[in-house]
Every structure is written in structure tokens, then in C-alpha cells.
């Protein structure tokens, strides 16, 4: 399963991958793009996605459900909670246009009186936020250079109030100091963490140890989230989702991903995911599967993902 020219897993999230390395090692942003129906991925990513699907056949649907949650959560925050600033850390690649709409054309449960325009063709976070709040500011953050190149070309590209910074979630102080230049920290900000927390807190030299013990404490993950939330004013939000570390198929699938040489991903079980919202007011319906978070139609799947939105009081 390991790429032929590698003797050991990559471990740490490598910032020094060159284009040649990239061809041989799957990357979570590109594998996610594959699951979402995009084409911004290499053979290694397609092969990793196929092996993940062999172990966890519901993974593709889970990723799409999870993105659907993010779209509904961002729409809700912009349209109903008056949030005008979003900090999307681990933003990933731009959304493929083929991504199926996670809602019908007519919004049923969350109508926005300020959103007369049609839904955008794609569901990048700034498009969803700006549909409800046209002046919304969005700051995308990622530590992957390929993601950065796509973000500059397709997400920010001269749009006022939409920016990208190259920063690492493991250094929340750096994210915050760069973000202060671009966002107004006297007004509410929604921090968005979509399928990125699992990259934290894994020993790169022994990723399997952590992956086989899902309940293992995750002090780094907790510290990073706490540091981000502490810097926000009251009335700010955390919107997050992650794979369910308590689901044996999802966990096994991430072991396979890791064995492909990818940066290890350790999914969070419900208890650890829920603890990230300690001290916040978790919006109804709570910590749930993505298809249960204010669904626009009957839930039809049980994706191995936890998601929630919390308000800083
Ligand atoms: C699985 S993708 C999720 C993309 C997007 N948030 C979504 O929900 O579709 C994980 C993203 O997190 C980024 N990432 C991983 N570790 C990171 C870190 N330490 N700091 C910043 N970004 C990171 C990856 O580059 C990738 O774009």
C-alpha cells in the first residue's frame, strides 16, 4: 500500500512536498475533492479514495452530507444569527460545481428574507455566506500549498473581503495574528473547522497507536480550539464537523489512508468532539449526524460524522 519510493509513512503534515512528492502521496484536500465529485486529484488520491470506500462504503456520502451541513450551518449563521465574518481553517479545495445541492431550490426550514438571489452554482463558503449577507468577510486558511494556489486562483481572486492565508492550525497564535489584519475582532466571527481537527494530535512516528485507541485524550486538539474561541468576542460561533472516531469503519478507513503515506487523520469519537464545545451554547439540535442538523428533507443516511454549531456566550 505504501508508495514504492517511500519506506515509512509521511507522518507530520509536510510543508516541503514538491510537485513530484505530491504525485505519490494522497492528500486529504484532494481525496475530499474526489469524494465530492471533483477532478482536482491525482491517481494516488483516487486510489486512496477507492481503498477507503472498500473499507467504509458510506464515506463518499458521508463527506457530501458533511459539506451539506457546512452549507446549511453557514447559511444559518449569516441569515439568522447575523454573523458577517467567517474564519474557515483547513478550507480545502474549492467546491466542485457538480456537488449536488444539499437542499431543494426552495429553502424550507431556514428562509432568508435577505436572500432573494438564486443559490450559487458552487458552494464555496463565501458564496453561501454572501448569498445571505452580501458584505460577509471570509478568511480561508490552509497549510497546503496546492490548496493555497487554488484558493488564490478561484476563491479570493480580487474579491474584496475574501482572503486566504497560509497558516497552520497547530499554531493558532499565528492564525489569529494574521486574521486580526483582515477581520474585525470586535464583531462576531464564525470559526469553521471542517474535517481538519483529525489531523491534529497524531504521533507521526506511530500514527497507528492513536488510530487504534479512539478514546485517547486529544489535548492538542482541545488547546487549539480553545485558543481560537478565547480570542473571539461574545456572540461568535464555532461550526465544526469531523469523522466519527467511534465508527469502526471510519477509523479503519483512516488507517488505510495513513498506510497510503498520507498525513495521518485521527477521527474524533463523539465524546471528544462534543467536548470541543464545552463552554459554548450548542445550537439545537446539538451534536448530531450531519443529515440531522436542520435537515431540509427527510434524513436518509447515517453518515459516520459528528457535527455541531456553538455560540460563545
Ligand atoms: C479533509 S480536508 C477538509 C476540507 C474542507 N474543510 C471540507 O470540509 O471540505 C482537510 C483540509 O485541512 C487542511 N489541513 C490539514 N492539516 C492542517 C493544518 N495543520 N493547518 C491548516 N490546514 C490543515 C488540509 O490541507 C485540507 O485542505
| Full CATH superfamily name | Vaccinia Virus protein VP39
**Major sheet characteristics:** 7 strands, mixed
Helicity range = 25-40%
Q: How many angstroms separate the termini?
A: 47 Å
Report the count of strand segments: 7
Please state the average pLDDT score: 84
**CATH domain topology:** Rossmann fold
Number of helices: 11
Radius of gyration: 18 Å
Please indicate the percent range of residues in DSSP E strands (runs of 2 or more): 5-15%
How would you write the strand order of the largest sheet? 3-2-1-4-5-7-6
Ligand names: S-adenosylmethionine
Offer a few descriptive terms.
313 residues, alpha/beta, Rossmann fold, 11 helices, disordered N terminus, binds S-adenosylmethionine
Provide a descriptive summary of the structure in words.
- By secondary structure, the protein is α/β, with parallel strands linked by helices.
- The chain has a single domain, classed as Rossmann fold (3-Layer(aba) Sandwich), CATH 3.40.50.
- Helix content is 36%, strand content 12%.
- Helix 2 packs across helix 3.
- The relative contact order is 0.18.
- The structure holds S-adenosylmethionine.
- The site of S-adenosylmethionine has 20 residues, from helix 2.
- One of its GO terms (biological process) is methylation.
- This is S-adenosyl methyltransferase.
Amino acid at each position: 500500500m505504501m508508495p514504492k519510493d517511500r519506506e515509512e509513512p509521511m507522518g507530520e503534515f509536510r510543508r516541503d512536498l514538491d510537485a513530484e512528492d505530491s504525485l505519490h502521496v494522497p492528500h486529504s484536500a484532494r481525496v475530499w475533492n474526489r469524494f465530492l465529485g471533483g477532478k482536482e486529484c491525482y491517481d494516488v488520491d483516487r486510489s486512496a479514495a477507492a481503498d477507503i470506500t472498500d473499507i467504509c462504503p458510506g464515506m463518499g456520502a458521508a463527506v457530501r452530507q458533511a459539506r451539506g451541513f457546512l452549507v446549511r450551518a453557514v447559511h444559518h449563521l449569516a441569515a439568522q444569527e447575523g454573523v458577517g465574518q467567517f474564519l474557515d481553517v483547513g478550507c480545502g479545495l474549492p467546491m466542485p460545481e457538480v456537488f449536488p445541492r444539499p437542499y431543494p431550490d426552495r429553502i424550507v426550514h431556514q428562509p432568508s428574507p435577505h436572500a432573494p438571489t438564486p443559490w450559487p452554482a458552487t458552494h464555496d463558503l463565501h458564496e453561501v455566506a454572501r448569498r445571505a449577507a452580501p458584505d460577509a468577510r471570509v478568511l480561508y486558511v490552509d497549510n497546503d500549498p496546492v490548496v493555497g494556489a487554488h484558493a488564490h486562483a478561484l476563491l479570493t481572486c480580487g474579491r474584496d473581503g475574501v482572503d486566504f492565508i497560509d497558516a497552520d492550525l497547530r499554531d493558532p497564535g499565528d492564525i489569529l495574528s494574521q486574521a486580526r489584519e483582515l477581520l474585525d475582532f470586535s464583531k462576531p466571527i464564525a470559526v469553521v473547522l471542517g474535517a481538519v481537527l483529525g489531523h491534529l494530535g497524531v504521533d507521526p512516528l506511530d500514527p497507528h497507536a492513536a488510530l487504534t485507541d479512539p478514546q485517547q485524550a486529544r489535548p492538542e486538539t482541545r488547546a487549539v480550539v480553545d485558543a481560537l474561541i478565547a480570542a473571539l468576542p461574545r456572540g461568535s460561533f464555532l461550526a465544526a464537523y469531523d469523522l466519527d472516531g467511534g465508527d469502526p469503519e471510519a477509523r479503519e478507513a483512516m488507517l488505510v489512508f495513513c498506510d497510503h503515506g498520507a498525513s495521518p487523520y485521527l477521527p474524533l469519537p463523539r465524546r471528544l468532539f462534543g467536548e470541543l464545545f464545552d463552554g459554548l451554547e450548542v445550537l439545537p439540535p446539538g451534536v448530531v449526524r450531519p443529515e440531522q442538523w436542520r435537515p431540509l428533507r427527510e434524513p436518509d443516511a447515517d453518515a459516520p460524522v459528528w457535527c455541531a454549531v456553538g455560540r460563545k456566550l
